[in-house]
Amino acid sequence: MNILLLSMPDSFEHTPTISIRMPNGALTSLAGNVDAHHRIAVADLVLVQHRVRAALNELMDKIQPDLVGLSVMTFQRKTAQKIIELLRSLRPGVQIVVGGYDPSMAPEAYTCGEVDFIVRGEGEITFRELLRAMESDRDYARISGLSYREAGRFHHNAGRPVSGLDSHEIRPPNREARVLSDYTMLGRQVDVVETSRGCTFDCSFCSIIAMRGRQFHTFSFDRVLADIRDARDHGAEAIFLVDDNITLNVSRFEALCQAIIDARLNHLDYIVQAMTSAIANHGETLVPLMRRAGFRYVFLGIENILDEDLNFLRANSKNVRRENGRKVGNAAIQAIDAVHRNKMYVVGGLIVGNPGDTRESIEANIEFARRYVDWPYIQHPTPYPRTPMTQDFHDRGLIINESFEEYDGTTAVVRTDHLTAEEVEFLRWRAERWMKLRHLPAVLFHSPWFTLCNAIKMMGHIFRGATIKSFLGLEDEQKAFQRYRAIRKAERAYI
Length: 495
Fold this sequence. Notes:
Rossmann fold, alpha/beta, globular, single chain
């Protein structure tokens, strides 16, 4: 069977394709878990963001797929629907399967269109069994985690239990299946590697619990190191460890860092997401090991610096500093200090625009980011399907926008009790541009040729909407903001 797997072209505001083009690790994992006789191709459409229609025409003509699979997040839903329409026009008989967070959390959004199958939750085993059923008895009712169209309606099978990852049932990814190239981060070829799955916290903004339950499972170090070597052998100079929460088990993470060092794989640049509490409370042992292992950027889930907001986000316990077993306040500053002492950079993840937020509380978080983080990753609370936050916002009547293509984290789609959604977004936008600009000298030092060649484009992206009059203070900042919003809206039309 000929199979084409697609990730959507939609990108986040904080990861512009001029700087970051990250592969979709789920698709290469799916490709590595199908039976060997299939001809499978993986195409990350973020690599062809400005010519999606032409690229799909070429791919469909070259691969002649019997089945096309799409990995979709909520803000990519509208794009996915348009792509499915195009695929049907190019190859009417092709089978369409969707998976990923949005189809798993909101399968009802995909049952009325042109979709034949929905893979819910972890996809590797479900997808493998789907292909086997398509080639044999077409008995789809026995496949856990699958929804399928039959006799004009959709049937939803029972969910698939989460894999423990230690049974070797989930095989390594297949990077050879990629048919597009040029994955880069700041000019260096980048890839993704997974060492664990799941999280035991229940943050109100997160979909992981709904996808996997409060579980944490790990791959063996032998598999992880082999995966890193495979990424390196495919040209990667930087590795993003995409674990949901790798710092849940600090002693394991320390051992992984040491294993990377011992395997002489610490010449690569590593990027990781981490809890502030883990970094702060283990800063003397863990963080120096991270630096020796090659880590360069640490995404810290600071979430918010105010207790009231952390309570709403259910993120207090992730951000607690401890001394002698006692809670002694927020861990953010201590974690940031540990990262900086060891010559790594902090990507500061903050969420502003929560129900009780005022202008002053948002400005407090922005000032914290301005003072302490190297690259701001400030988002707005977004009511993704089946997160605890979503029901809360519905109950409070704070959701003002149900255009899901704008659920990208940096478009404010909920208001607070004190501010409109537009006011919240403006406060973030106004401050964040200058914080991002401040990090360019560090990028220049690390990647001088890339920065010199692309600095104008990078600054052009950061300051979209601004004009000479804006910089000279000859027009209201709101005018530049409205131009930015119009540009951002136009950018979402990929097809």
